[in-house]
Amino acid sequence: MTYIVKNTHTISDELLEELKLVSVSTASHTLVEMGYRNAYMQGIMPLSFPEGQESAVGRAVTLRFIPLREDLVKQQYDTLPESPHRVALESITQNDILVIDTGSHMETGVIGDIFTRRLRYLGGQAIIVDGCIRDLQRVKAVNFPVLARGVHGGAIPRSLMSVGFNEPIRCGGVSVVPGDIILVDRDGAVAIPPQCVEDIVKIARAHDELEERWIKMKLDEGASLHTHYPPNAEARIEFENWKKENGYA
Predict the structure, then answer these.
(1) Which Gene3D superfamilies does the UniProt entry name for this protein (predicted)?
(2) Based on the domain organization, do 220 and 120 belong to the same domain?
(3) Of the four listed, 43, 107, 206, 207, which is most buried by Cβ atoms within 10 Å?
C-alpha cells in the first residue's frame, strides 16, 4: 500500500515576511507548546550566512540521496539534466528553500558554490543539507545561507546518488514534507507545518516584542528569575500595566 503525504495549505509571501521576524528558538518552542515536539533540525548549523541577514524563510523543496550503487548509476544518470538533484535545483522558484536528505552521510559534499549560485539566482532563500557541502570558502563568497552537518572535499559521484525529488524526507531527525515552511537563522533550522505559521507569528510577536523585551528590562533592573521568568501572577499584572502605559494593549 502507498501512503501519500502532502501539504494542502498555502502560505502567502506576506506571511513569510512576517515569519522572518521570529527566531528559530521561539518558533521551535512555540511548536512544542502547539504539540509538535520534533521540528528543530538537530546537528545542522549555518556554515555560510550573509552578514547583516537575521534569518531566511521559504517553502521546502526536497531532494533525497542514497548510497551509490554501481549497477544503478548509469541508469539513474543516463542523461545528466534528468538526474534528480539537477531537476530539483532547476525547479527552485522565489521563496523556496532546498532541503537535502543524504541520510546524514558525511563522506561526500553534495552542494558547492556553483549549485549555490544557481539557486540564489532562481530566487531560493537557503540550502539545508543533512550531510556535507564542499568548497566552503567559495560557498561563503556567494553570500547565501547554507546549513549542513559539515564539509567534505569529495563530490557527489564519490559515494552518493540522487533518487528522489519533492517527496517527504528526513532532515536532522525531522520529517520534512514539500511545501513545509522552513525558518533558518544562526541557531539552525526549524520545519513548520504551513497551517501553524499564522499562529506562530501571532504568538511569537507577543513573546519577542513584548514579554521578552519587558522581562529583559526587568532583569536588567534587578528583578529575580523566580518572580519574572516566567512572570508570576503579580509580575503578570505589572506586565499588563506596562503594556497599557506603552501603547501595547
Answers:
(1) Ribonuclease E inhibitor RraA/RraA-like
(2) no
(3) 207
C-alpha to C-alpha distance for 146 and 100, rounded to whole angstroms: 11
- Clarify whether residues 173 and 224 are in a common domain: no
CB 59 within 8 Å of CB 182: yes
Q: How confident is the model at residue 5, as a pLDDT?
A: 74
Enclosing domain of residue 210: 200-245
Interval 177-192 mean pLDDT: 98
Measured CA to CA, the distance from residue 101 to residue 180 in angstroms comes to: 15
Residues 76 and 137 in one domain: yes
Question: Cell digits for 243?
Answer: 503594556
- Residue 195 DSSP symbol: G
* pLDDT score of 144: 98
Quick check: 131 and 87 in contact, CB under 8 A?
Answer: no
Report the alpha-carbon angle 122-126-129, nearest 5. Answer: 120
CA distance to 12, 54, 61, per residue, from 180 (Å): 13, 20, 8
Residue 1 lies in a domain: no
Binned at pLDDT 50, 70 and 90, residue 1 comes out as: very low
Are 205 and 184 contained in the same domain?
no
> Residue 78: its pLDDT value, please?
66
